[in-house]
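Data deposition worksheet. Section B asks for the primary sequence of the deposited chain exactly as it was used as input, without tags or linkers unless they were present during the calculation. Section C holds the resulting structure in token form. Section D is free text for depositor observations; keep each observation to a single sentence. Incomplete worksheets are returned to the depositor.
Section A, Depositor: J.P.
Section B:
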Amino acid sequence: MSQSTLSTNSLTQAAIASARTAATTAASADTSATAASSSSALSSLTSNFNTFLTLLTTQLQNQDPTSPMSSDSFTSELAQFAGVEQQVKTNTNLTQLITAGQSSTLTSAQSLIGDTVSVSGSQFALQNSAATLQFSTTGAEPVAIAITDSSGNVIRTEQVNATKGANTWTWDGTSDDGVAEPDGTYTAALVAQGSGTSTTPLTFGSTAKVTGITRATDGSTQAQFGSATIPLSSVSTITTKSTS
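Section C:
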């Protein structure tokens, strides 16, 4: 075990701070801001197109017959009108193309149902009251683990003595207060004790069985692990292929 002047409490506090940051980041990523922004942009462009058409028509209706608009100006405005119209059609077609691509991804991902997969990132699934995290360290050293629930509350902390290389930690779903937490999506942070008072955040993975595939409000494809839902992009490998 490496020697350090960092206290056990300080190492745990570092893990807690990292877990809270990870939970906040995960919560922000779950919003549908992307979809809302895209819809708002198309709505704004369509509104500009209709406004431009109204202005052009009104201008033609009210021009001075003795001094009509020059052909150059009229042609220029028509060109602008055509450009805005084309942008509206392009945005609409792109939206339809993206939707078709998302449907294709959703369909192809159905083949993962029943498979046990590895998930990377700060989120993991508590499934059937169990979760196993895998991580590696460069040496034998203390590692603090902190887990937050979907609301960002720290519910479990633990410190383990890791060995050099690959390590696993299994959680039975109970909180520090001994309460059995429900199955679902949780966020974790692992921090290793470095030299002196320094700490090193560790990346980790987890394994879980895919029970379903769904689409989020922002259009992204999500993998379901019982009551847990994690972005399909976090699935790194298939560890056990379903035979059914």
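Section D:
Residues 71-109 form the longest helix (39 residues).
Residues 96 and 214 are 19 Å apart (CA to CA).
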